[in-house]
From TrEMBL, chain B:
It comes from the Bacteria. Residues 198-370 form the Spore germination GerAC-like C-terminal domain. This is Spore gernimation protein. The lineage of its organism: Bacteria, Bacillati, Bacillota, Bacilli, Bacillales. It is a lipid-anchor. Residues 26-190 form the Spore germination protein N-terminal domain. InterPro entries: GerAC_N (IPR057336), Spore_GerAC-like (IPR008844), Spore_GerAC-like_C (IPR046953), Spore_GerAC_C_sf (IPR038501).
Amino acid sequence: MNFFRKYNRTKNLHRPPISSQNQQKTPLPTFISKSVSENISMVHTHFTLAPDLIVKKMVIQQTGSHAALVYMSGLANQMVINDYVLTSLLFKEETKNKSEDLKVLLGHQQEATTWFEIENAIFQGNSVLFVENHTNVFIFNTPGYPQRQVGDSQLEPSLRGSHEGFVETGSQNIAMIRRHLPNLDLKIKEATVGKRGKTKISILYLADVANPEVLQVLEKRIQELDVDMILNTGVLGELIEDNPYSPLPQFIITERPDFAALQISLGRIVTVVDDSPSVLIGPASFTSFFQNIDDYGSRWMVASFIRLLRYVAFFIAVFLPSIYIAVISLHIEVIPLKLLLSIGESRDRVPFPPLLEAFFMEITLEVLRESGLRLPAPIGQSIGIVGGIVIGQAAVEAGIVSNIMVIIVALTAIASFIIPNYDMGSALRIIRFPMMVVASIFGFVGITIGFMIFIGHFIALESLGTPYGSPLAPIRFSEWKDVFIRFPQRTLVNRPFSTRATQLRRAKNNPSKGDKH
Amino acid sequence: MKRLSHIFLVYLFLITMLSGCAEQLPLEDMTMQLMLGIDLSKDNNLIFYETNPVFSKTSKKSSETIEVKATSIRDARNKFDTKVKGFVNGSKIQVILIGKKVLEHPDWFSLFDTIYRNPKFSLNSRVIAVDGPLSSIMYYQSEDNVLLPLHLKTLIDTNNRRNSTVQTTLHELHRQIYEKGITPSISEIKDGTQLRLTGTSLLNHKGKHVHSFNISETALLLILQKEERGEVSFTHFSLPINNKNELFHQDDISFSASNIKTKIKSAYHQNKFHFDIKINMPIYLGERMFPYNMSKNEKNFKKMVEEKLTKQFEDLIKIIQAKKIDPIGLGLYARAHHYAEYKKVEDEWGKALATSTINVSVKVDLISTGNVK
Amino acid sequence: MNTYIKNEITLMQFILVIHGLQVGVGVLELPRKLAETAGTDGWISIILGWILTTIASLIIIQVMKKNPHGSILELVTQNFGKLIGKLVTILFALYFAALSVIILIRESLFIQKWLLPQTAFPVLLLLLIIPSYLIVQHNIRVLARYSEFIFYISLWIFIVYLIPTKEAHLLNLLPVLKDGMKPILQAVHSTLLSFIGFEAAFFLYPFLRQKQAAALGIVVANTLSMLLFLIVTIAAFSFFSPDEITQFKEPVINMFKVIEFQFIERLEIIFLTYYIFVISTTALPLLFLTVFCTSKLTGRQDRHSRHLIWFFSALFIYVLMSSPTFQQNSQWQGKIANLSIFVAYLLPLFLWMFLWVKHLFQRRELH
């Protein structure tokens, strides 16, 4: 019933496909020619203004035929080309074997016949060998583009979890997930998205656990994409989510391979975007954003306590400023007199209405947070101190805000940072502002109406066609073992309903009846 | 269509927002009444007082008090509004003081109509009778600048915990006024050399003040009402022992009682109600001013205490019957168990109670006599 | 019907939608209404009302069993022809529309009286319309989830009703049966009105997944509501003196006015604000049923949100032009009460008898 999605999708579908090629250029022929020199000139006419393209002509010792090796100097590893490709081609003696295939000291070697494949291969850092009298080329896997070391996850540090985070290379990311789940049922479907970016997108799932319907929805949405490039996971997530007008994130984006592997094992589907250091996990439910890998690493009582704290923080982050505004502008009778007197004293010098006061502080805080983020780490910290302490103190002393408001705003900020998922934390910060406005006008009634709209939205929302509110709405008490309180590991035998997994019981081949709402 | 309707919805919402702004009234624009006083002047005009806190740090006083002549609480509010800077708001009234002169006139309760009618008012304000002119209390300034309304509220509350006075809130007063089987009782204070609590004012059905109980009588009343809290302390409790001393009351004991069990049984025969009140009192001896061989004569000692207590209760009930009131709420028992008979007399319940027989028997258990013999 | 299978609801959702429909604005006034007619014996009327309601709702389930894949509208169309089917659809649409209008207006009146006395009435109504539209525009499944969710997050209210009992005077409840059975029987009328809402089973039944448990479900729903009414009534009767309870228009709210904690006072404000959620579980299904009927009439089931917009616009314009009052609202309520009793208690009986007789004739024809 998602109306926003409907026209969004149809728009994409009916747009005529834009040709990726420049009209002024002569189109690239589909197949390659037999002559090496012809092929080389074809390469040169198409890869114009590409000084990093290297074309090495030679005579292959093994067969004695003319050939040319083409690669991008920055993307391909030249050491590998020298040691394993060129050495074997140029210096190996002619063998009796006159067969077509060449012996190269490389495991990964492919053949291709079309220019399209050649172009892709060159851009992926492979080297392409044209051989005289051959209508196919040999592609050697020699990537050597700059890569980052696998390091700790920046956004989601953890105490007990592994200390490796995803890097920008899709294949490495997949490898990291595979290390956690060495299982034949871990299937990977690949797709290339983007007319210009040609981003490789891999969908990882457990074939016997993940729900085929969900998988189909995800695949279909990815295939229907018609964009220039997928910059990173966030872009992909926004392009394929169910309701782009919702403030709530509908996919979990994580940097942690262990968390991704855990989610796969629960029946969710992970989408790896090449060139992006994070992966997309779906279908997500609201409560899954409050889970963290450390919940499973530490003992269950501690984990449960922290998890409850997060839910409390959720309410503080969304409602505390609005409740405060509502109380002091409309419902002073609900607070006990002694507290009221101290609030009255602190507000006495403040010349602004509570809403303005709150907005002033909230916006100051958001600006501080953002500026701290943009600055290099050492300066960022000092900005936090300057902002938090100096501005707060000065504002109170100048009589611009009351000190209780400073406490409220600070509490709210801390509370929004405890949410383990960055996207969810940011979403809550956004929801806070309209709440504050309605609270200042309609008081508690306004907050209730705001909350009702939120509940209505959250109940109707779906992620990949799966209810977002599960297991709260539709309610599934049996799943509550891992929602507000994390029960001991040995009791967590079932997969969550919200993944709509086809096997309900973990570690067993025990198909469930499936999740109907 | 759908999109249009959403734009329309957002538009409506914005209109709602803009037009809803009338409600806002921040704390600092408010004059928060904390105490309301009602008194009669010498020429029988109603005078209303209110006290509200002053937040400004430049002011020396923590509160200000205003008095106006008015006909009702609502009328008074309008007149207060002309004298203070903010909008007068009655939602935080902590105590309502009523001069005894007002209480002398029946039907004063109709003044309180607006409090029950207007949803803004709190029903937890304590209602206090004031012996003497109200002005001396309303303008009372203690040296340490404590807010008087808060002071009075805690005074009532802690004394209620120590069973020295009743805790009658507006809600409770409403119940006691309308309930035919009980008559109202409210706390009473007096401003002499110092502000102090004197006990409980007993009102009749119409609200007219008929009698006042002092602090120790109030304790007995609370026991009969089953409203006593925690320990009830009895001091200056003289026993019939010939050990008189001019200066020191050497026949006195003090004790406290807790977990008091009061059982009230009612019966109806010979055209009148009979109430049998049994009180079981575990006591802890706190003070004995005379030598006494407790191990030998414990029974005798208990008996003396029981007799004295029974006497006290009986005296109390005699007063109640003489004044034709029922602060204990015996009418509730009569209604619950003898509904038909009660219905006949419910409008004149005070009179019916005056003619009924009430027996009190007290049983004392001596739990502890302390650390010395 | 395809729409019914696509939008199945669970047994729990079935129970809680019906329970939500029954518990609403009426609860706030129920103790007073009972005390006015039956004194402190009013709680007995609730139990009597519950027995009648259970019988009526079991008959509804029996009737619906005859045609498990359609609502009452299909049932009537099948048995009485298309024309009468259309007529019944219109009548049901009007009935639910009237109920939802009364509830929405009454809810806004309550908010205006207790919480926002200076806000204009149309603004308050608009405030309620916006979330209502956003939720009801979806299908029954979202609505059922909503009712379920609200029920669970409102469970604390059950406990809060018990807090005032620490100031209760249980003697108020004695003697039982003080004035005989007559006033108690008279008060049954107002308890029956509190139970109104279970007739939604006529429409919810085809959506229910576990149809064999429908009878159990509806009995559980009625019992839940009965328990709540009983708790509220007994709490109020023991809290207020029987001589004063009729003084307060909404004794339940007054009861909360007295409760205070160390950190919060005037619980009635919090309670009443939160109660908007509880009332929404009455109003939203009614709104849904209204547009369900009208969209049946036009034959386009997926367009019910459009009907909703028309409905709300009409309501809003009406409210802009006239200013509703409590008296007027109560008058309307009184007028619709008898219709409600007919729809909920007598209609199932008639239908059941009709179907039974028809069944008898068909059998005879077969033999």
